[in-house]
Amino acid sequence: MRTYSFSEYQNAADVIKSRISILPEIGLVLGSGLGKLADKVEGAEPGTAPVIIDYKDIPGWPLSTVFGHKGRLVIGKLGGRNVIVQQGRTHFYEGYSMQEVTFAVRVMKLLGVGSLVVTNAAGGVNVFFHAGDVMLIKDHIGLVGMAGNNPLCGPNMDEFGTRFPDMSQAYDREYGKMAKEAAIKNNIDLKEGTYCWLSGPSFETPAEVRMLRSWGVDAVGMSTAPEVIVARHCGMRVLGISGITNKNSDNGEAQTTHEEVMEAANIIGPKIIVILNEVLPKL
Ligand code: HPA
User: Which of 53, 67, 99, 277 has the fewest CB atoms within 10 Å, counting from its CB?
Assistant: First the structure.
């Protein structure tokens, strides 16, 4: 299983630092089909292009194998803030260790990032959710982590945080309030709810959907919670937004496909851009 030493995180951060002129304050992780958000990033000077670094050029960085995930960092200005955008993430189901899945978060921390915005494509478990909706993540159930694959398993890296980090407010309440205000101001119907992290890659059976609903889950996906756990461990504040790309069937009458997920992401992307434009300057 691939794990990292502190100096490996530092090496990656140093390689990135050598390519940029301003250090990022906010990290953004873009989910399936939401990569277009990165097109809005500008360079350090108005009208210039952002710095783009392919993951393959950063030592230790795991490469995403999923269609719809680009595999690069876009570093520059968005909403007046210095940002580092992770365009494409790696998932547990690709065969990566949890340390690889969360590598980026710790590298961002070493670059000075204090706030993390995580987005994802998610299935709607809440019966009132529809494809194309956006949901503020208020809390998560880290099912894969609870079942023994928590990204913080193994020796604690004290340089980043404490052995037993608190998760009582994993998603920053103030950031959530800002996102809700931004949505209201721009006539976006921002849902809110609990996200459940499942390993995937198979989508859920109807019985699993009924089980998740009974647990109070509103949306399901195959990412995000591990990054949030690692971000909170090292003291970052987190804003999480899910794009609901499909409705999960509780009776087997509707199928879920990756194509459907990617298509809905095209409707969701612009809504998330509007919310972030409003919120980023305030984070
Ligand atoms: N289930 C799990 N992950 C997902 C889904 C889903 O229905 N849609 C997008 N990501």
Answer: 67
